[in-house]
DNA sequence: TACATTTAGGGGACCACAATGCGAT
DNA sequence: AGATCGCATTGTGGTCCCCTAAATG
């Protein structure tokens, strides 16, 4: 069962645009990405035919199916029989390629056995070249070009040229391959993620010391969507998070009954603290009434950010080592790799919501703690797990590997949550950058090449 | 070296309105 | 319990403006 186009909501989606974070049918892909020069530069790829949510990076010749990295690994990385399947790299593209262009990029593009019912394939052949196309003297549609004057096809050097490899091993990274003179420099999405086989095939063995060295809060993804991905456990119910030790067990904290009371001075009034981090997971927490604050501090760099972010609510004083405490500022700052869980509690009851899931929690769920005390303790962040903890070391290792993998492929492009809104904004007229009412005089029309005054 | 001025860069605010969320019916 | 309605909120991009840090005199 496929998914419908994010834009028209009617046609079956076939391509994925990372920039728009949208799955589009071919027709809408063309319409959306022909709007302006910038949108033409969006790198798109086929949609994974298995999960229908991620861009496909390989095509299995045996199964005749396009797969994203994850599905590829699931299908080929774990099965010895399937691991020998011939697979072909799927190149991404930008610009507004014609049907012939697309078929040249994806030789199999007109041969989707599992999508025969879709009308998009027909569109591929019938796709009209609209406003951006020209017709030559022979009445043939010419290929749309992007700002640089050419349809960009991003390949992956030699492996992409030959296009085929076998086995379950990782796709060779671009950097390990000879430079391809044809490769357009600076084109988007040229470095596809390295494939990992968690466990024995992981090219970088999990190493605790290395782990914390690699953590950099600056690169943390602030999305709770990572929960399942990172921990390998589905958070079916927010209560699960708070049961069995709740966040404490998740974070591997220990009893903080003897914690520095200075932390208790950190009180927020009405506030939303947006981000709480723990290693590979990040929480989006909303504190309903400022009764409780949770902070996780990983490294000095992030500590600074944390202070700045919530200084207005007084947490700075709480997480900074108090003068009365034996932990000096130096020791705090030198303890870069040790996360701190700082929980403050003003009242016994508060509402936490985790990404929309409201959680009723009681004071017993958390213990007051002191950041500086944590520092003194010097406990590693991954404290021994409770026996009943769902997060075994194996799961954790998997989570760490997933985190590392994601870290390598992470991009900091602006995420567009609603492609339809973006499309609307892209064509909306403005005055000095500001949207103006329809019908009002404007000085900038995104749809026109030149400004109108 | 200390201070004042200039320059460069970053980030937030602003705008309209369709999409979305959510409570009430 | 599900459907419908109506109101409030959200999110989108280009430009301007303010603030801070760095550079210069």
UniProtKB/TrEMBL annotation:
<dbReference type="InterPro" id="IPR000315">
    <property type="entry name" value="Znf_B-box"/>
</dbReference>
<dbReference type="GO" id="GO:0006355">
    <property type="term" value="P:regulation of DNA-templated transcription"/>
</dbReference>
<keyword id="KW-0479">Metal-binding</keyword>
<protein>
    <recommendedName>
        <fullName>CCT domain-containing protein</fullName>
    </recommendedName>
</protein>
<comment type="similarity">
    <text>Belongs to the CONSTANS family.</text>
</comment>
<keyword id="KW-0862">Zinc</keyword>
<dbReference type="InterPro" id="IPR049808">
    <property type="entry name" value="CONSTANS-like_Bbox1"/>
</dbReference>
<keyword id="KW-0677">Repeat</keyword>
<feature type="domain" description="B box-type">
    <location>
        <begin position="1"/>
        <end position="47"/>
    </location>
</feature>
<feature type="region of interest" description="Disordered">
    <location>
        <begin position="165"/>
        <end position="192"/>
    </location>
</feature>
<dbReference type="GO" id="GO:0008270">
    <property type="term" value="F:zinc ion binding"/>
</dbReference>
<dbReference type="GO" id="GO:0005634">
    <property type="term" value="C:nucleus"/>
</dbReference>
<keyword id="KW-0539">Nucleus</keyword>
<dbReference type="Pfam" id="PF06203">
    <property type="entry name" value="CCT"/>
</dbReference>
<feature type="domain" description="CCT">
    <location>
        <begin position="396"/>
        <end position="438"/>
    </location>
</feature>
<feature type="domain" description="B box-type">
    <location>
        <begin position="43"/>
        <end position="90"/>
    </location>
</feature>
<feature type="compositionally biased region" description="Polar residues">
    <location>
        <begin position="177"/>
        <end position="192"/>
    </location>
</feature>
<dbReference type="InterPro" id="IPR010402">
    <property type="entry name" value="CCT_domain"/>
</dbReference>
<keyword id="KW-0863">Zinc-finger</keyword>
